[in-house]
Amino acid sequence: MHIASTPKALEYKRMATKHDTETLLERQALKPPPLYQVALLNDDYTPMEFVVAIIQEYFNKDRETATQIMLSVHRYGKGVCGVFSKDIASTKVEFVLTHARKAGHPLQCVMEEV
């Protein structure tokens, strides 16, 4: 009889595999998913009021906060609207770009890993 196929050897193998899998899952569970910041980029054509409206609508910011982000876009070339998981960030970028294009504005929206 081959040692690897004895009931005792198979039991040890199952235990080792189960333990290894649990350890791997534990290690993976400890690492948080990467986060992405969504930012608007400045251009010379998109009206400031439109940028404020976009920030309020897609990032749920009040008017004052949206205005501060818009001023950051205007003064520094970029304004961070929020930090999200990859899927949510990607969806927000897509929605903002689609809305801007439909309105005829060249507003750019990007996501960057934090």
UniProtKB/TrEMBL annotation:
GO terms for molecular function: peptidase activity. Keywords: Hydrolase, Protease. Residues 31-109 form the Adaptor protein ClpS core domain. The keyword Hydrolase applies. The keyword Hydrolase applies. InterPro entries: ClpS, ClpS_core, Ribosomal_bL12_C/ClpS-like. GO terms for biological process: protein catabolic process; proteolysis. It comes from the Bacteria. Binds to the N-terminal domain of the chaperone ClpA. Involved in the modulation of the specificity of the ClpAP-mediated ATP-dependent protein degradation. PANTHER family: ATP-DEPENDENT CLP PROTEASE ADAPTER PROTEIN CLPS (PTHR33473:SF19), ATP-DEPENDENT CLP PROTEASE ADAPTER PROTEIN CLPS1, CHLOROPLASTIC (PTHR33473). Belongs to the ClpS family. This is ATP-dependent Clp protease adapter protein ClpS.
